[in-house]
Amino acid sequence: MECVYKERIKETVSSVRSFSFDEKNSPLNSEERINTFLDSINEFKDILKDKTQKINKINTRLQEITWFNNLDDDCLRLLNDIISAGKDLHSSLVRQYAKMGNLRKKGIAKEEIRFLKLAIDDLKEAIEDLDSVFFYLPNSPNFIETTRLLSLS
To answer: If exposure means fewest CB atoms within 10 Å of the residue's CB, which of 52, 67, 125, 135 is most exposed?
Structure first.
């Protein structure tokens, strides 16, 4: 008695064999392809590290400026420009960070992205500090009184 499913089984064997062979030669399994992918991840990490270093340098400069005193109106106008440009930079960086959500979820460049986020947060704080020190606090009666009392000591 002949099996009625023989042709169907032969077709399935052929299909599985062909697919198996193709997968063994697939470019996804190619070492070169995997290395290229890993190189791209390393390049992305380097870009993030470089961006983080640049932000940290700006943060340091902004923090140093908060210690300046006796500034004239021209300097205050320049500081106002720095604050505006810094806020714009911060917004751009936050949008870039938000676009990395899928990478964060997948654990790609996790540490580099975390350090970038910390630098972005520090940038926001440094900008807010500049604004407070030079534009908000000098107009605050409590701050003026405290400063006056400290200078009498």
So the answer is: 67
